[in-house]
Amino acid sequence: MEPKDDYARAINAHYDHAGGLEAAIDRGLRVAGHDLATLRPEDLAAVDQFHLGGPGSTRALLARAGLPQGAAVLDVGGGLGGAARALALEAECRVTVLDLTAAFVRVGVNLTARTGLSSRVRFGQGDATRLPFGAASFDAVWAQHSAMNIPDKGALYGECCRVLRPGGRLALHEVLAGPAGAVRYPVPWARTAALSDLAAPDMLRGLLGAAGLREAAWEDVTAEARRSAERLLGRLAAPEGPPPLGPHLFLGPGTVELMQNLALNLAEGRVTVAQGVFLKE
Ligand SMILES: C[S@@+](CC[C@H](N)C(=O)[O-])C[C@H]1O[C@@H](n2cnc3c(N)ncnc32)[C@H](O)[C@@H]1O
Question: What domains, with CATH codes, occur in the chain?
Answer without folding.
Answer: 6-280 (3.40.50.150)
